[in-house]
Amino acid sequence: MKKSGIILFLFILAKFILQFTAINPEYELQRDEYLHLDQANHLAWGYLSVPPVTSWIAFLIKILGNSVFWVKFFPALFGALTIVVVWKMIEELGGNLYAQILASTGILLSVLLRLNTLFQPNSLEVLLWTLVYFSLIKYLNSEKVKWLYIGAVFFGIGFLNKYNIVFSLLGIIPALLLTRQRKIFLQKHLYFAALLSLVFILPNMIWQYLHHFPMIHHMKELSERQLANVNRFDFLKSQILFFLGSVLVIFSGFYALLVYKRFEKFRFFLWAYLFTMILFLLFKAKDYYAIGIYPTYIAFGAVFISDFLDRIKPGKILKVVFIVMAVMCFIPIYGVALPNKSPRYILSHQDMYRNLGMLRWEDGKDHQLPQDFADMLGWKELAEKTDRLYTELSKSGNTLVLCDNYGQAGAINYYSVKGIKAVSFNADYINWFDFSKTYTNLIRIKESPEDELKKTATVFKYSKISDSIVNPFAREKGTVIFSFEGAKIDINKRVQSEIEEIKAGY
Question: What is the pLDDT of residues 39-49, one digit of tens each?
Answer without folding.
Answer: 999 999 999 88
